[in-house]
Predict the structure.
Amino acid sequence: MINLVVDQDLHFLIIAALCYQSNSNMKTYLTTDLLEQLKAQTEALLDKAIKERQMIPSDMFSTQPSATEWSATQCLSHLNGYGKYYLPLLEAAIRKASQGNKLSETFTPGWLGEYFTNLMQPKPDGTVSKKMKAPKQNIPPANENSDEVIALFIEQQEKMLQLLNTATGVNLGRRQIPISIAKFIRLKTGDVFRFVVAHNVRHVAQVERALSKVSKTSIRRAPLNTHTVSIIGMHHYRLWNKTK
Amino acid sequence: MHLQTFISAITHLERDEWTDFASIWQPYSARRKELLSAVGEVEKYLYFVTSGIQRAFYIHNKDREATLVFTYPFSFSGIADSFLTQQPSRYYLETLTASTFLRTTYGQLSAVMNKHRKIEQTILKATAFALEGVLQRQIELQCFTAEEKFRALLKRSPHVLGLIPHKYLASYLAIDAATFSRLLSSVRI
């Protein structure tokens, strides 16, 4: 089972958090604003993955910058593990919430959801706010096929985007998604969206750092000259290219 | 105007013909990964793509997916066969990126085609080109090796590598994702 990648200490923090759980001083979002923000973040990750990551040779993508640092492949594989757990739960939660007639225009994070999101969120300069360590059993294997890992990452981000689109107008405030490390704790749908996206952003920044460390010795594959060919080109519309 | 440039490459329309033709189009936009047309529905629109990428795909036995075609600016999009026959579609059309279009309905297009024989001829010619493209692709799918298909795609549209998830490109070429990755790292264009 996939676990949260945090210190074992977090288990105690959760218990502590539950003891003090309160919604006071929590910022309330307009649901549409929150969703738009998460969509923009997800789109940026997706664009980068499609434009650049797909083109990086697998040996470079799978190289660990040092023995103690994850390769880019490992970072994305780690995120894919989360996606496998949370995306189906988010989908089910939205389906359930959209069947009910209780629409909601605002969303107020729960205490724990806010805590998790802040824990994941990198600072604006891209550095991580709190260094965390993955428990041994959650370190992704170093020998996975990078192309498959990237393909799954793209597929999951596309899925995430579709879920964020369908979430418009539904009530994101119900606590229905059990967290992976402690099934008895349920987070609000909106909080899971927030912290999964923040977690994605965090580890994609790590991908960036890993690649820049190993890039000095590698080259991009498939030399491309996009200017030589017209923007239209696929078979069905081939002859219509005459317009270009 | 892109639509005018596009049409004028197929045929020359007189001023009144163009005015009538231009009047049937309405702007439309869609977000990324939005379904434009679904299986079982009659295609309501003919689209002219002004930005973004779209993908038509078929789902076989609920699990196998085949990418049939991608559309880009500046060309037509929509489920062509369903639109022209006004029969339910057997496949889906979705956006791969945020997209903008001009679009028109079957009723509006039929009306200008009935009014102007020249417009009807233009649509016929465009349909003939599309048909030729489909059959050419049929040849490639049946005769070409994986590498030949890969090379043909990259010769025609190298830019798609950085625009479209490779999984969809592999599906479009009817080769598996691992083969696509292998070709990507070994084939020099």
